[in-house]
Design brief:
The structure holds two protein chains of two kinds. Chain A is mainly alpha-helical. Chain A has helices spanning about 5-20, 20-25, 55-75, 95-100, 100-110, 120; strands at about 80, 85-90. Chain A contains six helices and two strands, in the order H-H-H-E-E-H-H-H. A two-stranded antiparallel sheet of chain A has the order 1-2. By secondary structure, chain B is mainly α. In chain B, strands 1-2 form a two-stranded antiparallel sheet. The longest helix of chain B is centred in the N-terminal third of the chain and has 29 residues, at about 25-55. The termini of chain B are far apart. The chains are: A mainly alpha, B mainly alpha. The interface of A and B includes residues 2, 30, 61 and 118 of A.
């Protein structure tokens, strides 16, 4: 090989670059977000979830966006869920009413998967430390 | 036909991934096996071609001299376009890699009123620059998938990319730029007759494959949502060599991943290797010091010669008899 020193240095830099994801993930195998979907309310009879857990897990972002459009743009205030119950379209008055720990209920997965949103910049939540 | 064949290949790849995951439930194959195999092919193939290039001799000093060469002290040298030192070459290569100065010099020849005129043509440079830099930012954004917690610089890039704060999920500037740039690079090969004439199916395949990857990624982000937590678990598992099959990721993700895997495997076999090849361009990576330093062809080997002195030694007596003058009389 001609100028083998330089070629080998180039290969070393290349290997360093392509191994970056592996170095970044080193020791992170099977790291999962620590989230908590449990209900933290005193009155268990009042608990009624908006939709099934599976649906909420996969589609809450679509649902909340639809709520925003309905409330802000269309002036509707009630959401009729798939099993027929009328639910006020408000995150604070529904989900976060029972799942009071926003840190465990929302943020853990969002920060784990790098999903950032500016909703919380203005909107307060029921949790006392979120209102600053 | 030049366009249809690569289009069919990409459509087939996407269909294979979709069918394989949706119907046959081959999550393990498309989520773990193919990514590993294709990534290994990429790394090994890349190094193989680099070594192959490293082994080929460059017998001549052929730097492109695009400016005043180093000369007398009162003549100003163009150190970037005609470098005579290692640092000059470094600067030239750096700007070549980061800003594509060779493409910037692209000219267009036109016949105007029976005269040939050379005009500057910057669109290719602009399209290439927009594409490559967008790709870099997109790749950095994707690095977040392999980190827990996500490093601040990745978050900063993500924030900067979504700086316009349009829509929900927030619209990434690079998503738009990379689609525009790739569309331009593709249309250029379709619309401009001369470029179309010299384009090969492989040229279209590269551009269209990248476009397909970008579009599948955009669809995943803005259209069909995928379970990001599951995607990240899969990515972390792959990158820490403890792969796990994660359920519940949408099929569109596997289409995206399979196309990326194919791109990685195809990379060393294709002209995409210009990523490594640019560093091996003799016209750019050599210093123009031809007159200052003697360069010896690395191919040179000791040649057995028969000098005139030896010739005379062989035939001295005969030459004397024939009356031919000799240098030494014995």
């Amino acid at each position: 090989m001609y100028k083998s020193g330089r070629v080998l240095a180039f290969i070393a830099v290349f290997l360093l670059l392509v191994s970056f994801p592996f170095l970044a993930a080193f020791g992170n195998a099977g790291s999962d977000p620590v989230y908590d979907l449990s209900v933290q309310t005193s009155d268990a009879t009042k608990v009624k979830c908006v939709e099934s857990t599976d649906y909420m897990k996969s589609s809450h972002m679509k649902l909340l966006q639809q709520w925003r459009d309905d409330v802000v743009r269309n002036g509707q205030n009630d959401f009729i869920s798939s099993n027929g119950q009328a639910i006020p379209m408000s995150l604070d008055d529904t989900c976060l009413n029972c799942h009071t720990d926003k840190e465990a209920f929302c943020d853990s997965c969002h920060s784990y998967s790098g999903v950032t949103m500016d909703c919380w910049d203005c909107h307060g939540t029921n949790s006392p430390d979120a209102k600053k | 036909m030049k366009i249809i064949a690569p289009l069919l290949i990409i459509a087939a790849l996407a269909a294979i991934a979709y069918f394989g995951v949706e119907v046959l439930h081959l999550q393990l194959l498309f989520g773990v096996v193919f990514p590993y195999v294709c990534f290994a092919m990429f790394v090994i193939g890349f190094i193989y071609r680099i070594v192959l290039w490293g082994r080929s001799a460059v017998p001549f000093r052929i730097p492109t001299t695009s400016g005043q060469e180093k000369s007398l002290p009162w003549i100003k040298q163009n150190k970037l376009d005609n470098p005579s030192s290692k640092s000059g070459v470094f600067g030239r290569m750096l700007l070549e890699v980061l800003t594509f100065r060779s493409l910037f010099r692209n000219t267009k020849v036109e016949k105007r009123k029976d005269q040939i005129s050379f005009g500057s043509a910057k669109w290719l440079w602009l399209g290439a620059l927009a594409f490559h830099w967008s790709l870099l930012i997109v790749l950095i954004r994707h690095l977040g998938l392999f980190m827990d917690p996500i490093a601040p610089f990745v978050q900063m890039v993500q924030f900067g990319d979504g700086f316009l704060q349009i829509g929900m999920p927030v619209f990434f500037i690079t998503d738009f730029v990379i689609v525009c740039a790739l569309t331009y690079l593709f249309l250029r090969r379709v619309v401009v007759p001369k470029v179309k004439y010299i384009s090969l199916p492989a040229d279209y395949l590269a551009v269209m494959l990248l476009l397909a990857i970008v579009l599948s990624g955009i669809l995943m982000r803005y259209g069909f949502k995928v379970d990001m937590v599951a995607v990240k678990q899969l990515a972390l598992g792959l990158a820490s060599f403890q792969p796990q099959v994660v359920d519940g990721i949408g099929s569109i993700f596997y289409v995206h991943l399979f196309l990326v895997s194919f791109l990685f495997a195809y990379f060393p076999l294709s002209k995409l290797m210009h990523a490594g090849g640019i560093f091996f361009s003799p016209t750019r990576n050599m210093a123009n010091n031809n007159r200052a330093i003697r360069h010896i062809n690395p191919w040179n080997y000791p040649v057995k010669v028969h000098s005139y002195e030896e010739y005379e030694d062989d035939f001295r007596e005969k030459m004397k008899k024939a009356g031919i003058p000799v240098d030494r009389s014995e």
